Amino acid sequence: MSEHASRGRAWCYGDNVDTDVIIPARYLTTSDPAELGPHALEDLDPSFSGSVEPGDVVVAGANFGCGSSREHAPLALKGAGVSAVVAESFARIFFRNAINTGLSVASCPEAVAATDAGDVLEVDPARGLVRNVTKGLTFAADPLPPFVLDIVAAGGLVGWVRQRTGAA
Amino acid sequence: MTRQTLTQKILAAHAGRDHVAMGEIVMCKVDLAMANDVTAPAAIAAFDKMGTGTVWDRSKVALVASHFAPAKDIASAGMLTAMRRFAAEQDVEHFFDVGRGGIEHILLPEEALALPGKLIIGADSHSCTYGALGCFSTGVGSTDLAAVWALGEIWLRVPESMQIVYRGRPGPWVVGKDLILHVIARIGDDGARYMAMEHTGPALAHVSMESRLTLTNMAIEAGAKSGIIEPDDVTLDYVAARQADTGRYASFDVMKADPGADYARVVDVDVSALEPMVAKPSLPSRAVPVSQVERRRVDQVFIGSCTNARIEDLRMAAHVLGDHSLAPHVRLMVIPATQRVWRQANAEGLLDRFAAAGATVSTPTCGACLGGHMGVLGPGEVCMSTSNRNYVGRMGHPTAEVYLANPAVAMATAVAGEIVHPSEVRAETLQEPVLV
Prior knowledge:
B: alpha/beta, five-stranded parallel sheet, globular
């Protein structure tokens, strides 16, 4: 695992976790992660925000982040302390938003299938690895295209644009 | 030369290429970049950090006050103010404030800003709607939109296309909403994930432009990147009328898919066999024919949203209402999509007919659809809605339940007080084109 790997306990959910349950519209009057974080996932799992710890990893089924384009969804997860999301698959707008705002994402059905809530995971998107520390298993995630890895390396899309325009 | 889908050809044209391959990542020039009052403030914050100072082309930026507009509270007023200030500072050409616009996805086609062959990026997931005009159009988040403001281009992965072929003639009360709910029920909530949904087939000749916009609007509910329909006479007549009405005569390109282009999947739909569809809580893919839905008692009916709040939708609802009253326990919210739709419905006497029956008729806003304001649902309430999403908590309390259907089913349900087929309330159907 590289120095940029995330590490934390797994919170496990099912398919089609949509952005309305990740952060309901009633909280969209701010885009401050610190204000959004305490409400992350509250309509899906009221126990989440009170117990999540910095570095924890959300593990979910297919089509994670479907629905609304609200960038508040990855920001809310980041604000709650989540370091990465590992899912069987991602909805495309959420995936872009996560990359753009610096939330680690990994598509890895095998890791999802092998993970139980509370397992300790390490996620290294740059190397495409997901490690279940508790069970001693390592999985290869779907590789990110080199173009997308450049955005990850820039810390997100703001940094990438600044590099491109020479503002950085 | 490899044969290309319509989506490939539009992306290639905007990447300065003759050909693009499915799966490759290309940089594309953007013809129109749209944001609304919920997504613009975060985009402005990101844009300020990007360091270019000014947007790449003020004539290609649209900002629309739609979601929490008119302002629902002090915080949302601040978001609207931030967007107004940015529009003034950047001299944004297409800024639609409260009372001058409405819901962006119905507004931009009305304003002749969404045109065939264009590449449109919107900071709202339902930006896929514009594809009904034969353009490539997709939704992104705020930071992506800010990068478009800064650079005038965007990276896109060239999507595979799913071709949906409609045959036959739609029966009574069957409109675009029913076609797309049927398709989503068949392919699933992520059945077209990362793909372009290309709607085609002889039945589309019988589907109005307004219904086509509903078809492409809900591409995102199948996980698609975009929805698209090749321009035909229906499209060109619509564009000509919108250009004449607005005086906005931009040039555009009518592009077509190459015969024999490669499709990842082909879905065949016999529209003659369809009846109006109802999506049960809490996923759009849980759509079934209305005759197979239990006669559930509802608390609220919502006729509105970027999916079904055009004049044709309101005429259909008014036709079903006729001289009926609403069921005493039902609250009906009717929210015309834009100022233009509102005025047209008013001129035709539709708004008064709704109000006389006991409906609440509101100024245009997205509010109710996303549980923002104007009809938020309380614990355990049941709602029939013409909108596009019935997720847990979407329209309010997480224990509220939302059903999705077309405006005829919605109004019939408001009259009966429980979910029913429109023919139970109104024997005579509408002829095409839809007239009251």
